[in-house]
Every structure is written in C-alpha cells, then in structure tokens.
Amino acid sequence: MKHRQEFLAIAVIAAVFALTGCRDSSSAEEPNEMVLHHALATRLTGLDPGDQRNVTALTIKSQIFEPLYQYHFLKRPYQLVPLLAEDMPEISDDKLTYTIKIKKGVYFQDDECFRSGKGREVKAEDFVFAIKRIANIKNLSQNWSIFDDKIVGLDEFREYTKSCERREDVDYSREVEGLQTPDDYTLVIKLKRPWPQLLTYALSDTATAPVTKEAIDFYGKDIISHPVGTGPFRLKEWRRRSYIVLVRNPTFRGEAYPSEGEAGDAEAGYLNDAGKTMPFADKVVWTVIEEDQPRWFLFLQGKLDSSVIPKDNWSEVITGSSELTAEMKRRGIHLKTFLDPTTFFLGFNMQDPVLGNNRPLRLAISRAIDREKFIELFRNNRDVVAHGIIPPLIASYDAQIKEKGYARYDPEEARSLLKEAEKVHGGKLPTLKIGMPGTDTFFRQFGQFFKRQLEAVNLDVGIEYMDGPTYWEKLHTRSLQMFASGMGATLPDAQDLLQSFYSKFWAPGSNSFNYANPEFDSLYEKIAVMFDSPERRELYRKMELIVLEDCPAAFLNHRVAYSLHHDWYKNYKPNVFTQGLSKYRKIDMKKRAEYKELLKRIK
Amino acid sequence: MTTYIIRRLLYTIPIVFGVLLLTFVLFTLVGGDISIEIAGKNATAETIEEIREEYGLNKPLFLSWDSQFINHFKNALTFDFGRARDREPVIDKIKRGVGPSLALTVPMFLGIMIISVSLSLVVAFVRGSVWDILAVVICIIGMSIPYLSFILFGQYFLAYKWGLFPVFFSPDLSTAQYVTLPVLIGIVTGLGSNLRFYRTVMLDEMRSDYVRTAFAKGLTTRRVLFKHVLKNAMIPIITRVVLAIPFLFLGSLLLERFFGIPGLGYLMIEAIGSRDYFVINAMTYISAILFVVFNVITDICYAWVDPRVSFE
Known about the structure:
Number of helices of chain B: 14
Mean pLDDT of chain B: 87
Oligomer: heterodimer
Shape of chain B: flat
Radius of gyration of chain A: 26 Å
Order of helices and strands of chain B: HHHHHHHHHHHHHH
Number of strands of chain A: 23
Low-confidence stretches of chain A: 18-25
Strand order of the largest sheet of chain A: 16-20-15-19-17-18
Strand content of chain B: under 5%
Largest sheet of chain A: 6 strands, mixed
Structural class of chain B: mainly alpha
Helix content of chain B: over 70%
Structural class of chain A: alpha+beta
Number of strands of chain B: 0
Distance between the termini of chain A: 47 Å
Radius of gyration of chain B: 24 Å
Helix content of chain A: 25-40%
C-alpha cells in the first residue's frame, strides 16, 4: 500500500503499451526472405486502379495491377512491349480500330471476393469493365480525362450513368460500341478519331488494368483498400499513413526478365538475370517517411535499399566534381543520375489584364531570371537550364534550342523591355504577385530569389505564400497572376507537355497559363491524330517555338535526378515512364549481411 | 452534486454548438470549395458538379432543413462523421490513430507529471540553494531550446549514432520499442515549463504556517512534503493535469512525424494540409467534447481533494 501511487503509474504505462499492441508479427521479416525496403515521401491515398493519379498511388498499384502494355525495362529509347496483351495490336488502316489479343492463363489473385476464394482467369470483358468504371461518373474517377471524347459510345455510356441514382445502379452490361469482346481473349477498341497515344498513354497505364467485377461488388466503396489484381505482388498489409506491405502473388503466372537491353547494360550487370522468372523479391515494404533526416539515417543504416539525396546532406554525398564522396564509396553506395522528363517554370496567367496583353513585360521577366544561379542555389547545380518546353529525354527535343536564346539572362535587355512594357500598359506597372505552393523555408527562399531577381531590373513583385490546396484552388480558378510550378511527361511523347498550352484545356485543365494561340491550337489538333514520324516531331518543335515566342512562362530548369542505392540492390536501372519496377529488383543477401558487419566496423 | 454535474453538462450544449458553427464557418466559407481539387487534372465541369453532389457541397449553406450546416450538425450529434476524402470512414481513421497517439502521449504525460511534481517538491524544499538555482537554470535552458532541436539531436545521437533506439517506426518493432525514444524526448522537453510551474506552486505552500508546524512537531521531511504539502498543492496541480488530458488525444505532431508514429496529431495536420474537412470536423468535435467533460471532472476533483470546496 505504501507504494500504491508508484504501482498505479507503472500499471497505467504498462496498460497503454499492452492496449496499443506489441510486435506486429504478420509483418516481421523471415530470415533469408528477400525483402525490398523503400520509403514513400507522401502517404498512399487509395488502391483503386480506376482512380487516383498521384505518384505514390501509381507506384504501389502498378505492382499489383497490370495493363496490356508496358515499357521495356532496359531498352532506350523507350519501347512499348506487351504485358497482358499477347502481342502488339492489329490496327486498322484508318487507325480507328485496335484488335488486341489477350494472354491466356492470366489469373486474378486469390481473394475472398471469388466464390471459391480462388482467382479466376482474366477475360477481355474485365478490361472493358475497367474502362466503363472510369466512365461511370458516379465513381468520380480522376482518370476520365484519358478517355474523354475518344472511344465510340463511351461518352454516351457516361451520359447514361448520370441518370443513375447511385454508382451501384449502373448497368455495366450496357453495350459500348467502341469496346467489344468477340471472344474471351480478344478486345476490340473503336476510336472516334485516330489516337496515337492509345497504347503509350492509356493501355500502358494502371488505370486500364483488368478489374474483376466480383471484387467491386464484394468490397463496394472499400475497394480502395482491397486491390485484386493479376500482378507479381499482392497486398498483405496497409497501415494507412504508416506502411504498406506487398508479398509475392503465389498465383502469378511468372514473367521472364528481359534478355536484351541497350549498349552497356551487360557490363552494368543489368542482364545478369536475363531469362530468369520474376519477381525475385518475396516482399516489398514501403514506409511513409516525410522527413529527410530519418529517411537518410535509415538508408545509411541499411534499412532502405535506395534513397534520394537530402538537400542538407548534399556535400556529405557528392564532391565538387559531382562524384560520390570517399565515405559513400566505402559504404558501397552507388549513384545513378538520370534525366527526368520534367520542366519547371514561372508561369504567367495570360488572362490577367496586366500580364496577358503585355508580351514585353513577360519577356522582361524571363530575361531577368538567372537560371544558372537558380539551379546552383536550389538544385545543387544538378539540373539543366530549360531553354524550351521539351526536356532532353524526349525524342523531339531540339538540341539546338539553346542557340535561340529564349532562356538567356540579360538584365539590361529586361530593363529596356520593361520600358516598352510600361508604354503598352499605359503607365507605371503595378506590383506583380507570384503565388508559391508552400509556406516553408524552401518556398520562402524560392520566393525571395524571384523577388530579388525582378527587383534588380526595377520590377516590383510581391510573393504570396500559401498552402498547397489554396494554391491549387487559385490556380484552377485562374486567380493567380504568376505561379511557380512544373510539369512532367508521363510518356516519352512531347504531346503530353504541349497539351498544357492547348486552349481547350484552360484551368482547371492542364493549361494553367490560360494561354490561347489559334495557330498553336490548329497544330495541336493536327498532331493529336498523327502517329510518330519525323513530320510530327517537326510540328512539335514548331509548336514549342510558337509558345516560346508568346512567352506564357519563364521556363527554368529540367530536372536531373540523383539517386543512391546500396551495393546489394540489383537491377536498379532508372526507368522514368514505368512504375511497376519491383518485379525486376533483386537483393544480394550476402552483400546486405556484409553491410551490417561494415557498420559495426565503422562504429 | 448530481444537480451540479447536470447543470455543468447542460452548459456544454452551447459550447459544442459554438464549436460546430465555428468549424463549419471557417472551413466552408473561408476555406473554399474542395471539389476542384478532388476532381484532379483536366476534370470536366460535370465531374466537379458530381463531386459537389456526392459531398453535399451543392446544398444550401444554412437556410434549409437539408442545408450543409444542419447536416454537419446532425452528423456530429450522431457521431456519423462519414468518409474522409480518401473514402475511408473517418471513425476508422480515428480509432486506428488513438492507440499510437496515446502510447506516445500518456507515458510522456505521466513521466512529466511524476518527475516534475517530485522534483518541484525537492527544489522548493532546498529553495535558494545551488541546487535550486541549477534546476531553474536548466529549466530555462530547456524551455529556450526549440522542440525540434531536441528531436533532431535525440534522433541523431541516441538512435542513429549510438544505436540505442530505432530511428523510425518499423512494422517489426513492438510499440514499446518505437515509442521509447520519442517519449523520452517528450519528457525532457516538457520538464522545463512544468517544473517551473510546480516549483512556484510548491514554494507558495512551503511558506505556509502548517509546514512550519509540521516540522516543529517532528514529522519527517518526506512526510511533510508528500503527505501535507503535496495534498495542499493539489488544486493547481489538478487544474493543470486534468485539463491536459484531452490534449493527449490529439497526439504530438512533430514527434509522430519524425518517428513515423501513425497517431492523431499526424492525422490532424495532414487533414488540415489536404483540407479534409470531414476529419478536421470530427477531431475538433471530439476534442471539444473531451475538453468540456474534463473541465467538469476538474471541478469534481476539486471537491474530492479539498473539503473546503462545495458544489453549492
């Protein structure tokens, strides 16, 4: 009784620990189990293949769901190859009808949504169902823009779904003329007009992976946390905002590791596993780690296989000559650098009364920005200056575009352009506003950089810092005057970037600049139905120049990614257009064990 | 006493109503429309309209029986918080986050309370001595160093460099393993202000006549401090301690984020960042109720520890 209070305190603490659970044995790692350990910088929001287009969701979903086509893991330039399709499609002469044979012997993973608990074979109808789900307006899918006004009869199906009270009331057996299944293994897609990106954009996207109706009926709205796919991995555990564990799908049909790649792949060891059956890993664990410090420590402790380089640790990792430091080499860490298909810019709202009608003002802003300084300050000198819209990774990139000088830094010219701009404006220019999509130190430094650069040429600028959702709302409602942003291509085709300047895609569409140029629009409509050819590439370049002349943005940089990985992490060849890469990855278990020994020695 | 409790509980109705009104006005009128953001890139106007329909954003704000505010009010009263923006039921998110948050905040709270109250008795007893001055200086230093610095240094030295604790949450760790370091950091950061507060309380009591009398009667120091001084200092202690309990539910944002603890602090900040009003509303409402209830409990405790306090 004397120590009653002490006992009480200890009992309360013990009870809290007991109530909140102890070790989660279901996720514990078995010895000799090949586990890939990754970090996610943002949480996963859902695993419905028909919805969610953020990078995190696509990364996880693409390990579970498989579309008809995928990009070859090793070959460059990027080449599309069949995944669930038996072969490349038969395309009619008028380019309007695609006939796709589907692989036999592909099964959905076992799941309780099936009557026997055993996954059934995938049929062509499952692909049709997946696309119809996206068209069903009640599902509020973010993927509808992929199919909007493309497939014969699909827009009418969407119209029909509007009349349904609930998403469950939609009759998916209702026929869509452009989505036919003559037999269980043949899918016929009929287009309203030629659509060159059908394969590269739509049919290689997880959004079009087959979906089983049994799962949708069984799980209803909870389908977001019960993915039933055909891929190499299946969901074992998802603790929201914390971690996600995928395990090898025991009923996966198996897929052979590529036997050929590009020059240098064999020397780099990328062909060591040629012909072997994938996946290699037994389990993949993603942990949500939003802060740089713990993510970096876990990587150095060998608890993550790969990592980006945190801004504050740059000098610890990379020398002045852009190589790995001796310490990183001693740890057996490797560096991969590769071009990202991205373009970052300071955008102008072309519907703004001050900026929209004043080309000299926009040009002055562009000339006033020292892009090299920007890259040095904010990107540790690793990016390349964006002289245009199309990044160097894309085939239609113009290697001579630098000579045209659209990204030149010329404060003198900027000052004289500003005088011209004042004449156009009819007096002194008002203070301009730049919207920043964040309020933290990084964005404040970012904003200060622009402010300083523009004030150096006597242009008054105010920076508006706001949280992400406020920024996007203002951008979508066309209420920002200038905005710092970026765009990335999801396929190796410049059309994906150029669409951001098409006038029919004004905000809330991808044309956040609210830019319009009839000549550009007419060329866009032309290339939208053209297949890849030297002529189309020339048109891309012409369109790029039209935009650069009109200057709806000051294009800043194309990102170059720096990625680190441990020596034991194999088959880590960067592939920026494919997310379902875990099946290729492999762990050298011996080397991973040796790293633990190395850490002890370092200590 | 029963009448008093009932009366106090009735007072909670306008308070909770006020909280509901405030959150609704803040997030509906000031926060803006979330449907465009949910719709994603290149969404058509009809998709945006459908989202507004799904989330009830196309209904009148106030002046209707089916208005957004009445629905907001009804849902809160029935604890039906609906689904979050990622379509998971809000209540499931809260249930899942409560455990990790409490595993972090309850030991922190108890640790801070026990250590700071005990130490405050000691430093108050040796007031004016070098130990007292040292304790005050350490407290002030502790209060002056930013919370984040304790986390960064603790994680670097104790977890990464010396390997005494895990750096971050991992599925194969037990709760005790992954919360120990954040709990220790939380206790260290919380000690400064608490020790200073309790020291002041104890000093007031130490100067009372009954303490001198107790020592004059020959009672041991331990008995005087823990039996008499502590008991008489209970009113301010209870006020501080009981009113802190509802906040335990809210977890600790920075600790949860840096150590990967999937608690409610993290959930709340994420909800604010992504304008998930459904989660914010539920969390605010539950916090308000807890706060009001613990206020009543505080009053009851006053009477329990001090017979001079009456419910009349």
